[in-house]
Design a protein that fits this description.
binds adenosine-5'-triphosphate; 16 helices; 379 residues; single chain; alpha/beta; binds magnesium ion; eight-stranded mixed sheet; 42% helix
Length: 379
């Protein structure tokens, strides 16, 4: 994978970058704009704006929203405070002035590339309900359980409902500590403190539950963001059950890989989902936001084509309705994806899709599923 993309036509700068030993690709402004629509981006983009009137290429804020982990380093002729302020506001991490030296370039890129190689960040998926009761917790909890079951990778579910969240119940867990303890003490959260706060559920997913007591003072997005950043480096998968009405939470999702807006086929939920998806797309970039339709009923009055027209995107995931399976799972505290059902298969597909894992080889019908289990009979 390209580590550094260089938006420059200067052969000397390209040579300097190459001699740092990193994998460099030369790009133009169109390639740069395309990154904002793509799920992948290089670890850093170096943008050459040297000249008498330095201007950033179009799409810098969009790039920053779509790829919060990638660094943006701008090469300038001299440090102009006005330009630097605008650049930083747009999401640039560093402005590097002439004269360019090997040392200066390596210094600017070191943090970026060393960080990305030695500590690959995990993935964070946020689930936001279009309205109450549409199945947001069901989706979040079962996505976490499905990812852990499939990959055995470290997985954390964070219930961001400060009070009265019920995600822990879905795991049959009764944690002593909560997300409020984590947020209130975020300045001293380290490996051991955090391990003491989370509860390991029976299925292996770790849970940071909602609280029974209200938080002291207002919820602040910076603390939540810091908590998510920490979780992202500790866990391969962090799944968030996000309260729809808490704007501080919705404003703290920068570290998130994808945001899933959960809706039902009800007109009021659809209207709310459209609005939420639009707002979140503006804030975090369209590539990171998707809408999932829960309790899908093909005979419902509102057809999927109408829904897609209103949402402005194809509905990739239609999650079937199965009240018995859904409720029994909550009552037993065993995530429904741990047993087989149409609903379970559908959420597993959503989870694999979010994580870019491809089709689950143990899923029925695929090699390694029912067919492979029957294969020994033929031998
Ligand atoms: N696909 C489904 N089919 C049938 N029932 C479902 C489905 N998904 C969720 N449910 C049921 O709907 C109810 C609400 O689900 P859930 O608690 O996940 O929703 P929520 O959006 O998180 O609600 P809240 O706003 O209270 O947090 C639960 O009883 C759950 O078992
Ligand atoms: Mg819920």
């Amino acid at each position: 994978m390209t580590q550094i993309a260089a938006l420059t036509t200067d052969a000397e700068l390209l040579e300097l970058l190459r001699s740092s030993g990193l994998k460099i690709a030369q790009i133009d402004t169109v390639d740069f704009a395309n990154y904002s629509r793509s799920a992948e981006a290089p670890s850093a983009v170096v943008i050459d704006v040297r000249g008498t009137h330095p201007t950033l290429p179009p799409g810098v804020p969009e790039f920053r929203k779509a790829h919060p982990q990638s660094a943006l380093v701008v090469i300038v002729s001299k440090l102009d405070p006005q330009f630097m302020l605008g650049a930083m506001r747009a999401g640039v991490n560093e402005c590097l002035p002439e004269p360019l030296t090997q040392e200066g370039i390596e210094e600017a890129l070191r943090g970026v590339v060393v960080g990305s190689q030695s500590e690959p960040a995990g993935q964070v998926y946020a689930f936001v309900g279009a309205k109450g009761g549409v199945g947001t917790s069901t989706m979040a909890v079962n996505t976490a359980a499905a990812l852990h079951k499939r990959t055995k990778a470290s997985t954390l579910l964070v219930d961001l409902h400060v009070v009265h969240g019920d995600a822990a119940l879905f795991f049959g867990a009764d944690p002593r500590f909560s997300v409020v303890d984590a947020i209130e003490n975020v300045h001293r959260v380290d490996e051991s403190f955090f391990s003491g706060l989370v509860e390991k559920s029976r299925c292996g997913v770790q849970v940071l539950a909602s609280s029974n007591r209200p938080i002291h003072g207002a919820m602040d997005p910076q603390r939540t963001r810091a908590l998510l950043d920490f979780a992202k480096h500790k866990y391969q998968y962090t799944i968030l059950d996000v309260p729809r009405s808490d704007f501080a939470m919705l404003d703290a999702l920068d570290p998130v890989t994808s945001i899933v807006v959960v809706t039902s086929q009800e007109v009021s939920a659809l209207r709310s989902a459209t609005h939420a998806a639009e707002t979140l797309r503006q804030r975090y970039g369209a590539a990171r936001v998707r809408v999932v339709l829960n309790r899908f009923d093909k005979n419902a009055a509102v057809a999927t084509t109408d829904i897609e027209r209103v949402l402005g995107e194809p509905l990739k995931h239609l999650i079937p309705s199965d009240y018995r399976v859904a409720v029994e799972a909550v009552n037993t505290g065993i995530p429904l994806v741990l047993a087989d059902s149409k609903l379970a298969r559908s959420i597993k597909t959503l989870a694999s899709d979010l994580a870019g894992l491809g089709k689950d080889p143990t899923q029925d019908g695929a090699p390694g599923g029912v067919l492979s289990r029957l294969a020994w009979r033929r031998v």
